[in-house]
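Last lecture ended with a question: if I hand you only a sequence, what can you say about the shape of the protein? Today we answer it with a concrete record. The protein is Putative acyl-CoA dehydrogenase. Below, first the input exactly as provided, then the predicted structure, then a couple of comments.
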Amino acid sequence: MTSAAESDFTRPRESAANLVPDLNNVNAFTGDKIATDVLARFAPWSEHNATDLGDLVWDPNTLRAARDAQRFLPELRTLDRVGNRLDVVEFHPAYHELMSMAFGASAHALAWTSKEQGSHLARAVQSYLWNQVDGSTACPMGMAYAAIPILRAHPALAPWAERVAAHDYDPAYAPIETKRAATIAYAMTEKQGGSDLRANVTVARPVGPRGDGEEYIVNGHKWFCSAPMSDAYLTVAQTEGGTSCLFVPRWRPDGTPNGIRINRLKDKLGNRANASSEIEYHDAYAILVGEEAHGIRTILSSSEYTRLDFAVGSAGLMRAALSQALFYNDYRGAFGKRLSDLPIQAPVLADLALEWAGAAHLGFRVARAEDGHDLEDSLTSRLLTPVSKYWNCRRVSAVVEESIQCVGGNGYIEEHPLPRYYREAPLNAIWEGTSNMMVMDVGRVLTREPKTIEPILDEIRTVSGAHSALDQAMRDIESMLDSPADTARYLVTKIALATQAALLLEHAPTVVAEAFIDSRLGGDWGPGFGTLRNVDYEAIIDYARLG
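The predicted structure:
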């Protein structure tokens, strides 16, 4: 006979069995089929680096630091108690914890400190893993990666190159001679010019002789300077010869603070732990980098690295959001099944998995091109860098938004990492050139150097005949090459998708590659995630599961 207590429906039922815990204590590298495969193939010597960093990604202490760094934001102190200029930014200890983890793992410098083959790819995997943790610290990490070859190319800056490349982090605001490691920022954009650096009005004049490595004095402003507490900035100013690149340390050679004023910190949508600022130069000491009038050329020589980092970083952010969605849907039950097994949900998860797989393989392919030494590698890097930056950074916001849908209301509260990912997602498409700038760059390359497309088409040709839709995509690309400016985003999108498809055919399970091609190139796909049809959803989802 049923007791009164057992029949009392006003009593709450036990619910703990269906409450999803935090995603913790799983190795983000060893559980990632794409990252492990690409390192095993092309840079096995770095597997221990990735394994060590992979252990940190989903560690509860790392997640706590990433959350706290975004909650307790940087604060600008322009003056001390009695009114003397300070111009320092103070960070929460969690930010310094994250910086120590990232720089200690050489997520910024492994490409330049290792002599092993595949060092750019190895560093890209480190960046991919770190971007699953925090985007705010990924910014100074990426700037260091791009700046090291510039510093090494100029003897006057060699001591700086050594400290920026150190597998260490030293946040002290002090002259470089007293520090064991250094960070570096880029300060290019001005309020009136934006991406058009030739419109800059900041000026630099020589102290004595003109030329590479000589001392200059800089006056002017910069409208966006991220990580202003870096130990030095690479900046652009007008000299008598034209637009030039200069190195501006935070301290003068005599040990006094340089003439740099931090006016304000930006109140940004995301990436908030990274103190983006507005600065002014007041007779700031600087060293000319390269010859006068060659500033844009000097800066562009490093942009391939920052843009690669954004493409890989966006793939990493997709991976983080997908990991959260899969973990939640595999754990949570509804209507007698796991969410991931529901016929309405499995196509969504599989579609997200395809998007991540294409993005990860594309980003890592560009990194492999950086490791090459022949003309084909150089051409591949020149074209695929803006293509991958454009496409991966465009797609990540949609992936994160759909991942929030997969978790539901629990993924919309600030205790969950997904809102942080969502605010972070649009930024990589803006930094170092917006989407249209990437499209313009591709058009410029194809117009001036039409042969840059050939290595990419050759890769696609190696799998020709494997799928009619991919063959048609290659023909479409070839038909548009005579007038790339007229087809713009359509052409860049086709190049991205066809390259992803060829990479998946070579490196991923057949079911993944064919589903990607059918949906992205075959026309059997709707405008949103979850419209896949007639594919093995479980096999695709399993490819994306950690473990």
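Comments.
1. The CA atoms of residues 383 and 442 lie 6 Å apart.
2. The domain at 179-295 is CATH 2.40.110.20 (Butyryl-CoA Dehydrogenase, subunit A; domain 2).
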